């Protein structure tokens, strides 16, 4: 049996290129957003920030940001503790020295970005973080800054003090009220992403964070996919095996409805602390996902079974959320009968649980206990790498909102 721990180690991030065409489409989208950035950095003034210019931070500062506290250099942050280590990055809790703001620094080692394709995924991740922040969507983690250091590409995001949902799930299911509330937040976050033609592709409790007020936010757009239009079909594989929809496994093309499948697996897991599909190896797991039906515990309520069964419909066209109504259909389920989504969107519903002030559940305690200054790992680095200069041309960003300036 593949345990959740083993899954953590084996986290599968598959990038199988199925269609040259699709690659080209993605490039068009990225070039589009790069151009948008270029427009914004027109009329730049000479660099006025305090820190020494790094060889990897050459993007000029837009005029309106001159005089703002620097965010674009690793020296601008005090790294405090380790928040998480994923398949791609190491995430640190850090304090922005100039403002005292707590942030999360996701450091991606440049050694792991050897292919242009991986480089473009990082750009997309940054662009989605930026989109989320600009729109101030309460259910998506947003960008604070992005920059390159000698050996890393860093994405700095708003810190979520409650940690990720998997830390609350280790042995026990979550109370139903919390599952309804957190999944309701995810419905609103997914709605926003889908409206912007973004398929997240890695919805799972590890990628859902709780902010200090107790609201849930989607994070980790590292395997997200941008499509050309709302219902577009796409082929390349990406995500975590336990949460992969049957049509993705079968490689027959898929749409944004793979996110609703993963969302169904996540609700099942939160309510039971188990996976609906398991297997002693990856092939058996994939067989179970494509061929078998989930079993529900006797104690599970009818409306929980109803929403999970409809989300785990193996036919993507019949799956809940697959129509143009997308999230609106999901909101109508009786599972959400007690949630007023308009009030939730305005954060007017009181969260069922407020994270404790000193949450260390998600920290590696060893770092907290020793109060040791930590530094980013630099194993394997001899020479600083200058990655795909064209792809990373406008990467450096300090995202101040108009209200900050
Ligand atoms: N903004 C944040 N606030 C608090 N914790 C965070 C934040 N961002 C990330 N984390 C923690 O770090 C973990 C890894 O982050 P993230 O998922 O972005 O990295 P990843 O390398 O893409 O992960 P994976 O490959 O496991 O999906 C999260 O599961 C969470 O526990
Ligand atoms: Mg993750």
In short:
By secondary structure, the protein is of the alpha+beta class. 30% of the residues lie in helices and 12% in strands. α4 (176-195) runs antiparallel to α6 and α6 (257-272) runs antiparallel to α8 (302-311).
Describe the structure.
By secondary structure, the chain is α+β, with helices and mostly antiparallel strands. The protein has 2 domains: 22-161 and 361-404, 2-Layer Sandwich (Phosphorylase Kinase, domain 1), CATH 3.30.200.20; 166-345, Transferase(Phosphotransferase), domain 1, CATH 1.10.510. The chain has helices spanning 4-10, 20-40, 116-134, 176-195, 246-249, 257-272, 282-291, 302-311, 327-331, 341-345, 365-370; strands at 77-85, 89-96, 102-109, 143-148, 152-158, 198-199, 208-210, 216-218, 225-226, 397-398. The strands form 3 sheets. It has a 6-stranded antiparallel beta sheet. A hairpin with a 3-residue loop joins strand 4 and strand 5 (152-158). Helix 6 packs antiparallel against helix 8 (302-311). The termini are far apart. Residues 11, 83-84, 86-89, 91, 104, 106, 141, 157-160, 163-164, 202, 206-207, 209, 219-220, 222, 362 line the site of adenosine-5'-triphosphate. Adenosine-5'-triphosphate binds at residues 11, 83-84, 86-89, 91, 104, 106, 141, 157-160, 163-164, 202, 206-207, 209, 219-220, 222, 362.
